[in-house]
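We both want to read discrete structure tokens more fluently, so let's practise on a single case. Would you supply a protein for us yourself, any chain you care to pick? Would you write everything just below, so we can both look at the same thing?
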Amino acid sequence: MKSIQNRKAYHDFQILEKFEAGISLEGCEVKSIRAGHATLQDSFARVINGELWLINCHILPYTGTYQFQAPSPTRDRKLLMHKSEVVKLTKKTQEKGLTLIPVAMYFSKNRLKVELGLAKSKKTYDKRDDLKKRDSQRDIERGLAHKNRG
């Protein structure tokens, strides 16, 4: 199973630093993520009462689960990190106005991990500059590929 990526995070935010956290889930949610039925779009992490929580992450209920036993798809999920890291993240998000955005969700040694990015919001002109750079790079690569073929 490949990881679940949040491509929109790189478009809307400038990722300054990355952190890895575990996540507390129920068994049917893990099966659903293994099947690729989760999205990280529009989700974020927040420190609440000294604990790190993943908010608005959408995990569809596993199809083999009894319908009434399945947890809510968008419930808040606790992220697992060392206390010192949580304190460090709390200070950075409060002082500098940065946010925690989940960038990826993947399995590492049969444990589900969430990669969090300490992010700063991009302005619209920054987004346009990134698109221009990407388009020009793509044109250059196409020209080189066409030149090498002919």
